[in-house]
Amino acid sequence: MADCNIPDTKTILIQRTLRSGQTVRYPGHIVIMGDVNPGAEVIAGGNIVVLGHLRGIAHAGAGGNQQAIVAAFKLEPTQLRIDNHITRAPDGQKWHPKQPEIASIKNGVVVIEDYHSSGDKHLTLYQA
Amino acid sequence: MGEVIVVTSGKGGVGKTTTVANIGTGLAAEGYKVVLVDTDIGLRNLDVVMGLENRIVYDIVDVVSGNCRLKQALIKDKRFEELYLLPAAQTKDKTAISMEQMKELCANLKNDFDYVIIDCPAGIEMGFKNAIAGAEKAIVVTTPEVSAVRDADRIIGLLEANDLEEPKLIINRIRPDMVKRGDMMDIDDMIEILAIDLLGVVPEDELIVISTNKGEPAVLEKTSKAGQAYKNISLRITGENVPLMHLESHAGIMKKLRKLLGV
To answer: Number of folded domains in chain B?
Structure first.
């Protein structure tokens, strides 16, 4: 799993908000300029970047990629999946992210961290 | 040439029919020629809310299948000369009409009326598809509940997919006291998710229940806050710029006081 194994590293750009019931599926990376509302799904073979509010379901690295990430201006998904890991916010706990965050798998668990554009620690992910 | 507006919501029970009855009556009260079309075939009730049930002879299915002329099926309102209702059939189902028939019907109606307002059934199936087939504009009704907002979002997506761009939003049955306590979604929360223009906010009002049961739209009641909200919505549809009214009674009183004092 050391090598990033995305079969198609092309990227699509979606320039609108995904509403409940709408799905985007793509083997490469997905960038969304807009929100992903509750009830909407984004499924990517590679990374998912949402320039907006992610409230729906995001599945990055679908089809087997542990290196995939999900990043959003406001990362508040109903459910977050990376490769075969499925996570959700703890029950009864509500927090509203104030700044962009990034989710990735570290040591076998999905972790969410603040996203810093200056930090190059995520750079390798984009060079997938 | 008139305008065809569909009133829809996805979820049931949020107040589509009440909204259609009140907006239609409000527009007619402003002197426009209006027809209300009930497309909820099999579960009609716009006629009941309008108090016109006992006048139905022919219905929308009779019209599209050629059993009668359009004019024969239109029921004139009790209160306004220029307000008409085209009732739904009660003994058929949603498959009794097609999208093409609906388009043709809307095209015919808008020749004769300033506003054609379509009451859409709940759901996203055939009835919804028929209701939006001939529409040029859409109004989405929601209540401050997570499930209603979710369905409204789905509906907006479907409307956009069917080239009904930029639908307008009505938030119905809001309770300012509950919003203030943080027990109810506030307007900003809903606008943030749905991201469409707000046409109006209608407060919860007991008088709506009373007027619905009596078959007399609340928009004509000057004392009703919901009625006034519907009146404002009607005016906004005609293009007038009416500010949102203050829902909290305290703010209202303070504002009136300041106005009186000229501050």
So the answer is: 1
